Amino acid sequence: MESKPCIHSLTVKNSHVLPPDTNSHGTLFGGKLMAYMDDVAAIASTRHARTPVVTASTDSVDFLAPVQEGSTICLEAFVTWTHNTSMEVFVKAITENLLTGERHVCTTAFLTMVAIDENGKPTQVPSVYPESEEEKWLHEGAQERADYRKKRREESKTLAEKFGADFPWDPTSNRKA
Asked: pTM for the complete prediction?
């Protein structure tokens, strides 16, 4: 498989923030923004791997600035790093007031996407290489982020095993039903 530059997976999505997209504060629902992020990450990683993908994880999403109704949201995503069957995708979301031109980064996140074959099994992806200073900076920190994700995933598995799939707690005793 031939290695590809990060920029070849670049995906940009713009959307106008309308009333059905907002909460009672007149700002974009956080879940809606996360869905947009998952969408652009899926497109960028599919563009890189040229095979279907699934989302394996999303790193923490910190909402840095509100996205007001009537503004736009612009998301940029590209593959920053690969490992066998997985791809780290960097996503940046920018809000813009169309009337004033004021722009703010409202969130950034890394999503891990896994390429799958026709049987739904993980499949090899091409490696990626950075070219710009920003891409190099992201690429250099990718292994450390991947190690952290692996540790976090193990902790998530432990939590899942401990709490299981039984019904929630009994509200009268604050114990599992």
From this structure: 0.90
- Greater model confidence, 122 or 169: 122
Strand pairing category for 128-129 and 4-5:
parallel
Distance of CA 173 to the CA centre of its chain: 38
Quick one: DSSP state of residue 91?
Answer: E
Report the interhelical angle of 133-140 vs 142-163 (nearest 10°).
Answer: 40
pLDDT of residue 116: 98
Res. 174: pLDDT tops 90 = no
Query: Phi first, then psi: what are they for 169, rounded to 5°?
Result: -60, 150
**Across the beta sheet with 103-115, what order do the strands follow?**
11-16, 72-83, 86-96, 103-115, 53-58
